[in-house]
Amino acid sequence: MSTIVALATAPMNCAIHIIRISGPQAFEMINKISTTKIKKETFKIWYTTLKDNDQVLDEVLVNTFVGPKTFTGEDLVEINCHGGVIVANLIIKILIKYGCQPAQRGEFSRRALLNKKMDLSKIEAINNLVNAKNELSVKGVIGALLGRVSQSISDFKHELFMIIGQIEVNIDYPEYDDVEQVDAINLKQRLLVLNEKIKKIIDQSKKFLPINKGIKVLIIGKPNVGKSTLLNALCNEQKAIVTDIPGTTRDVIESSINIDNITLNILDTAGIHSTNDFVENLGINKAKELINKVDLVLYLVPANNQQDLELYDLIKDQKHLLVYTKKDLIDQYNDDQIYINAKDNDIQALIDKIKELFYVQEFDNANIDVLQSQRQIGILENVNYLIDNAITNLEKGDTVDLVVADLEFCNLRLNELLGIGSEYDFLDDLFKNFCVGK
């Protein structure tokens, strides 16, 4: 295994940078440039000057950690240098000259996985923590970071292991009286209980995923209904030009904001109507294409023309909110409708409804144990399907031994969630989204 090096802090000028070295030659590498002998002792901090021949590089603090009790499971050295990017890059350049390999994205975390320092669920949680978009996203990571999600997955594996083991003992050693007999009725009941627990995590995770990655919101409506005015009000700045001229917005305008502890990735679109303008038509077609690619559609209709729902068929099958704009033009409101006046920043009713629609209050008041990505959710949904299939086959009259194959495949899929086995092709794609120094 090579010894790798990378900057663990953001590549910008700041107070302090941390350079991370991991691998069997970590101590040898630091001693090639340290004027003080850095001993192979764990949890030590050393003050030293770094030099390359006669060239002084920096005065630094060096933290030392001896494997396997480190993040990566290997010898690990962290250099705390002054926060100039040029200085940090120069130190890394010299270490590479002496034999360190530049770390790839996520390589430190990948080594932690391969050395069994943590499972894949926890590693993905760390990456989500680094990239958290709001406080609620952080809360959603903690359950996985503390190992609660991994423990649930391990519990599922253990239950499947016990079921499969008992079935195989019943088949191979029918004369054993001290082993519980697993018949179709007993097996079906155990699988129903297990699948109910799995479905609960899936449902919670699917509800939380938009909050974690940012709720993708598409604003649509006819020209001059107030789409760009709403975007500007949500962003609290002029992101889009607002005029009385129909067709002012021609392309999709994107903006990401944090508001009331949720992240909204907002797409403002061209007003949808019939036009002979070629460029405007391109924007209208793009708006229509986006309808099925977002988490929520806001369909804006003027409050003084509430019957004008001509575009409703476009969005009726997607999660949506009907929003009546320019509420100052009417005197009476229906309590079950959403009215806003974006021109005066009167949009709180809409924000509250979005939070309700995406269970923000529910998550804000509870411990959140959720899967960290669509990949993880997809795997657990497949496990859920396989167990459902086994239950269906039992109800059709299959004997218990015929469902073992489905249950064994469930265990293999759960291994993917924990990263057990390093042969999975998806690891390269997963780690390329990590920071280099992570």
**pLDDT < 50 stretches:** 240-250
SS content category: alpha/beta
Number of helices: 15
Number of DSSP-assigned strands = 12
CATH fold naming of the largest domain: Rossmann fold
N→C terminal distance: 18 Å
What descriptive keywords fit this protein?
alpha/beta; Gyrase A, domain 2; Four Helix Bundle (Hemerythrin (Met), subunit A); 15 helices; 43% helix; flat
What does the model show?
The chain is an alpha/beta fold and 438 residues long. It folds into three domains: 4-118, 2-Layer Sandwich (Gyrase A, domain 2); 135-210 and 369-419, tRNA modification GTPase MnmE domain 2 (Four Helix Bundle (Hemerythrin (Met), subunit A)); 215-294 and 296-357, Rossmann fold. The protein is 43% helix and 17% strand. It has 15 helices and twelve strands. It has a six-stranded mixed β-sheet. The longest helix has 30 residues, at 184-213.
Summary of the model, kept short:
The chain folds into three domains: 4-118, 2-Layer Sandwich (Gyrase A, domain 2); 135-210 and 369-419, Four Helix Bundle (Hemerythrin (Met), subunit A); 215-294 and 296-357, 3-Layer(aba) Sandwich (Rossmann fold), CATH 3.40.50. With 438 residues, the protein is α/β, with parallel strands linked by helices. The chain has helices spanning 26-31, 85-97, 107-114, 120-130, 135-145, 148-172, 184-213, 227-235, 278-290, 312-315, 348-357, 360-364, 374-395, 404-418, 426-431; strands at residues 4-7, 16-22, 44-52, 55-65, 76-82, 101-102, 215-221, 253-259, 262-268, 296-302, 320-325, 338-339.
